[in-house]
Amino acid sequence: MPNLEHPVYPAATLLHLESLVPCRESQVSMLLSIFGERQQFSFPSIFIYGHTSSGKTYVMQTLLNTLQLPHVFVNCVEYFTSRLLLEEILIQLQSCSSDTKQTSHVPCDTFNDFVRLFKQAVASRELKDQTLYIVLDRAEQLREMEANILPAFLRLQELTDRNVTVVLLSEIVWELFRPNTGCFEPFTLYFPDYSIGHLQKILSQNHPPEYSADFYAAYINILLGVFYMVCRDLKELQHLAALNFSKYCEPVVRGEANERDTRKLWKNIEPHLKKAMQTVYLREVSSSQWERLQRDDGEPGQLKGLSAHTHVELPYYSKFLLIAAYLASYNPVRTDKRFFLKHHGKIRKTNFMKKHEKTSNHLLGPKPFPLDRLLAILYSIVDNRVAPTANIFSQITSLVTLQLLSMVDHSDQLDGPRYKCTVSLDFIRAIAR
User: Fold this and answer.
1) What is the distance between the alpha carbons of residues 371 and 373, in angstroms, rounded to a whole number?
2) What is the mean pLDDT of residues 174-198?
3) 11-190 in CATH: which number?
């Protein structure tokens, strides 16, 4: 029995709509009740909110397109000024009208001009006889525009005396929208996050035709068992599912297992999912890079920018300070003259070394160094001349606060503060790159 019912729309259309918006039947049913019949006046403004990737934009687009309701859909991030936004609405209204004559582009500088031009644009019989929906996605951008834009959109039906409903889609609550001067209160509708059962149902619909639905559902169950605690974003989970499915199928392709050998399939995919845990929100690395890493069975750190732990965005001189601190911590003092002076004179070769000097300095750990040595190395590795200003010293303090440097407390010494570098060689290589 279908969950969506409406006396105006055919049952087949509602059944098709229900199949397109899984796990959002209650929200679609509520919207259908608010919309009413095509020619009826709907609520002047509707505010739909929910976290990212909760289906707000997709549900509205699917609902309006499936039922073939006249609508305008505008992203407020793309049209970021009031003039661009109002003109884009008018342009889309012209395409909604069945009139063959196309009016020339008319600039729209104020909302008064928009109201006048809006009345002219909806003068056609099709737009006059049924409700027109104006959907503003990422509506939180309206708060950055002129103070009258948001209140005017909320009561556009009253200002134009036309059958129009404005739908605002946002990720933040209405209380952060409400102006201090007050405004017309829209009807608010909340889209909750998808539960793990909802995600399982939605992701399982994308199974490849060459594999059974149960096989792909078992794969999605494994994927959600690993990633659900750290990632609830449907789009990201869809990306992860598409990216790792070929690795899950390898034993079946090679003939080593069948689709029901869940244990063998899990053992094959487990190490690769652990690697993928370091690349959740894979915008840090391209899909081709990730697939190449899986083929080579390399470590995640082999790819540039793969993990946020190997790269921290620091100011220009802070990067050089950190490199200088690493050199000061892991190089003996007696080597500074050889490494950082252009004309260091003749270097006497010695055949003997102390026993502990034969051990790698990286195994012995970082050594403390004074502030003047850090600055001396900094001046030698930076190309241009650096003045010892308060900005440099404040950046050293910031590095200590970030725990990239640690201050060694020696209260009995009067020769100034001493520091240690606490970051790894891979970190310094990423900074130096």
Assistant:
1) 5
2) 93
3) 3.40.50.300
